[in-house]
């Protein structure tokens, strides 16, 4: 369904070329001061535009319709909409009756028997603006407890960041982690774009200062929830926690995180043990496939099953992982905020603090 | 919480050293013929024992308490229990007051303020026997529609399977995919065990003959659900779908799966586009960390925060990924069966077939 | 939370005096033809205005933002908003710091520590316009299977309808069931209004032509879901199914519904046995309390706990049960549509019809 | 599905004549001292036996399989089973192929196409023993906060309790509220039983000392949840909160609960305003139909649609409302405990008390 989360729920609606997209954020505790500038700023980070993204022009102004009174959350659901203003639906007329390679065209049609082909309809990454809005509200809650979430791009094609510098990434047009080779990364993106092709990418997300104890036993573990959140982002095909896939080639004696008086000595586990946070940095890597929309001719079939050539028009990101990093931050915020709320009733001591 | 799935739900209970573990499978359609031998056989695959697994002896007989009449499912929940018979709780007396590295001891204590230390309590992989039972029931449903799920081990430490042969893996003591280097894999496991250490592993899972159209829009996508299912298995730290993490270094033109009259020409996407199955093989890789229980001395702290040395006794798998492959199959079965049921009401045509 | 339903979900947001109210309808099967005139017409039935309702003027135009393509549902969520245009927030300035008797003022404040006092905020019956919109979409689905839902008012104060005539009720300004004493009912409402007081009412809802088999085993029974739906409507304090509270004074021999070749001979059970529909009319009665907003002076306390007199201004229904009957229809539609979808996977035969 | 509750979940399984019934209680906070004697005592109240109940002999010993360590809850799910020992399945041979009037036989068959006819299978009130076990655990949590729930029978047939005395009811064999006419009530039950017939009943349930603020906005209101809980008990056909159905004939000026410095002056609303508790007694009435199993010949049809006469054997309660009162208490406990947990994250102040 179109709802994410258990106690903090984000429900979204909207297609790429409809009137508006939007959503409902339900379960936000009452009493959170709402910083609208911060929320719009998060939307702006993901907003289309610039050399390294689609040239679709959207202001992406988020309009809040409910749930806030006198500048504070009321405990009631926050409804919001983001207008679609720059739809060029005609760009999609020629793909109305065929299935674009790498897209959800075929699968939506197989499932529903009907497909809104304009801009990819519901399957478009445009919906992720709603995720960013939801994540921004979650961030307001997290900030009350000193918890922060940040992401950066650590790989595009065969170029990898050598150092991780979140401060630099925050000011980078492509959210790149490493000042020393940002130019190479940018150049690769532009060259690939000019070659009518697209690039994959890897995004690193870190959650800082989450308390130990977050994550549910035994089927809504924190790592399982993060994996679902990240794999559910458009284009993500791999998710790693901590040492990730490298653990397959490790020994227990080198993978275990031992402790001393100051806490955990290492963080191979990426801040999660048994599905529950251990108080260390929570470390997630998400791997994005290259944008499926490319400007090369590709063989496909049409609705009648006949073979045709797909030639795309429209405006597309050369590397969806770049803006995807903003979405990764949003999803991690939603997960950790949800877990914070769920955990409130984990033990009698917590409840006694509230009700006595 | 302790429930997995939406329309087909598996809820489990039980600790490693309690009286019994068990669960409830809810949402199974009525009218499925129940092959108890098949179900027990699945349990037997995961059962402890043998050179390559823990020496804990459990018969793991699953006892069905409800939901079946005259050999068929009734539409009512299937309750089942699996007795614990070989608990050696005394093996754990010395770790009662300390946190074992790599385990959930610290995080459970942080969350709940109380911890059943015997055998790891609820966080023990023993619970996965319930997942296997649930997955076996799901398999009965899937078999009615010709859908199958299988897993094999493709990497332990630095040894990788070169070929994938599921038939061979089915008869392999370590579910190894490749006859040509099974001996090396086995030798590595035993050597590591003899060295009081443990090994990581990679498991490949393939779902065959699932129809196109499975997976929910937009926050219970098939890939997101599979990622959650796999990352939620004890010890899994990385999950990949299709080309997985390699997509970060691919071009759109090489990653897109084009189509001809016979369907998709390639399967880079691993059978899932836009979160929905496309009718091809669904391909998942799960990466297991080395068993955290090793017999080397490890520094840790006790409940009072003092530094102590952890020295383990007990019986442990040298490589949890081996038996973990059986659990991976079970989880994939649960996910795909759940999606099959959820999809039943996806469009009006489906419903008309039922109600008219 | 702010979501109703399991497979067909209505999530709503919005306060009485915010910018807009709205919601998301998720889980509608693809392929339903959307009759926008019908949907607006349902909204119009509940719309404020007229002698027997509040004089607040709202056009209640529902704007659909997503989920429909080419006139049909796409399987993607339907987002909608209904603008608030006639807020007179100043009418509420004098109650900002006190708790109105019979309203949710005190309880919202106790729960959240903050309260949007304008028009009752989220607790206002204004939200029910979203329920009516959701119910109208559910009705489109039900119509595909010949299922209908209708409601009428059968009691206001001490006046009871003697006959039940849904055709008459449909054209009655107060949805009254019985032409023979409608004038008395209207007169009572107006007299009570002129006396600055308000009236309770009883609403009868009947679901016709639902197939046998709807309702879940064992904690989402059809009757339990209907009871939750109806009791959750603002002001409802009693819900009955079939013979309702009268069963306490009946014998088994007179309450049991026996069968002959043509089906059930009687319908004491109101169409539900063991929580599952039996194919007969489903009969529900909902009892509405009098509108809490009256224009008499009432003792209460303010935020500081001091005793004050509450004197209301604003525009209010003299009898909320009248417009409540439209909401009752909507909720019953949502429940029965949800059950229709849930039931699609109840047995293997249903699934075989879909997937084979 | 077979799960009740949101944050505190009770999932159950089991049929009347299976090996055992049982369930899982998930979401109990860690650290609650478990009084097993209290829990068994609650089961004993509902246990079959005695002149006024079925003569089926069951010891109803509840066996706890998990979730408790050292006498305290661990935060992990509590699995439990209750053996079936006194099944007389042969008593049901003659009804294998026909539909008993007033029972779920027809509707289960319509839904599932298969039916466990022995003792009513899953639809039997035997399952309610699991509800009582779940409710008893909820009561342990509630007791930590001084919240209590109790029920009594206030009407059987045309005999109504004039006074409500819960102390008396606790010691009454039929949980009757009023010492002054208990003999008449008992006599009526026995006479009806001797006449091979059965009786309806009304049960009053009161929740004392629940804090203000419990209940979710806007579709999991406290009253809606209670209505669902009560209407979902076998045989309940009407549910009232506070003044209940009488509100249809009340004026706002007499129904509103005004306040003074000491709180609410009256309690017409039954402790719930806007779906949220106001701190007063929460008052619920549930109306039970007469036991459908009677020993009179009744016309019905068989699986082939032919008209036959149903003549029952077996052991049945003459008045299910009597033991139903124990179940009503259990369900109210589950609801209020669930709401207590859900409310823990309602506002930022609550969370700050926990996390700071």
Automatic annotation (TrEMBL), chains A, B, C, D:
This is Chorismate synthase. The keyword Lyase applies. It comes from the Bacteria. Keywords: Amino-acid biosynthesis, Aromatic amino acid biosynthesis, FAD, Flavoprotein, FMN, Lyase, NADP. Pathway: Metabolic intermediate biosynthesis; chorismate biosynthesis; chorismate from D-erythrose 4-phosphate and phosphoenolpyruvate: step 7/7. This reaction introduces a second double bond into the aromatic ring system. CDD domains: Chorismate_synthase. InterPro entries: Chorismate_synth, Chorismate_synth_AroC_sf, Chorismate_synthase_CS. It holds the Pfam family Chorismate_synt. NADP(+) binds at residues 46, 51. Homotetramer. It catalyses: 5-O-(1-carboxyvinyl)-3-phosphoshikimate = chorismate + phosphate. The keyword Cell membrane does not apply. It comes from Campylobacter vicugnae. Reduced FMN (FMNH(2)). Its EC number is 4.2.3.5. Its cofactor is FMNH2. HAMAP family: Chorismate_synth. Signal peptide: none annotated. FMN binds at residues 122-124, 234-235, 274, 289-293, 315. GO terms for molecular function: chorismate synthase activity. Belongs to the chorismate synthase family.
